[in-house]
Amino acid sequence: MKTKLLYIFLVIAIITSTESCKKDKVKGCMNSEARNYDLNADEDNGTCTFERDKFLGNWSGLLANTNNPGTADTTFNFPFSIVVSSSSINGVIINDFPVSGAPSSASVNSNNRFSLVIPKQNLTSGLDSFGISGTGQISDDQIVFILLKETPGILDTISVTAQKQ
User: N- or C-end of the chain: fewer Cβ atoms within 10 A?
Assistant: First the structure.
């Protein structure tokens, strides 16, 4: 009987010590391109954040054609949105941007300053075809864009100041 009790005690001790040695999974962001990447994470918990996230959302912009400042038809307010692009981790799409009349793609860079780079895109709005390119800098809840709009024989510099809504 004593042998059986000793055997049962040893089995319970072994099971208990084996169970207590199991390591709990560390949950966190497992995408190495994310701002909050966790090198120790064993399981992704869906909390990854990216440089582009600061730009996402609805914006209200004030557009001014700097080649013709002060004229009534070149300065106006407009809403637009910035959404995630599937093209890259830091890719975004700018929707309803009146300069282009079509969604514009952009990417977000950070060197202690967040900037939005809009590569040259050839777009058509109505009967007009033109190229658009530029950059945007973000500070808190404001983006300042400097854009170049190229139509045959004309190069317009356009500034846009936008507030996050």
Answer: N
User: How many other β-carbons are positioned within 10 Å of the β-carbon of residue 126?
Assistant: 6
- Structural domain count, the chain: 2
Burial track 33-65 (b if 16+ CB lie within 10 A, e otherwise): ebeeebeebeeeeeebebbbebbeeebebebbb
Q: Do residues 73 and 30 share a domain?
A: no
Domain around 120: 51-164
DSSP helix/strand/coil, 4: helix
Token pair recorded at residue 163: 């507030």
CA–CA separation, 145 and 147 (whole Å): 6
Q: What percent of the chain has pLDDT over 70?
A: 73
Contact 132, 101 (CB under 8 A): no
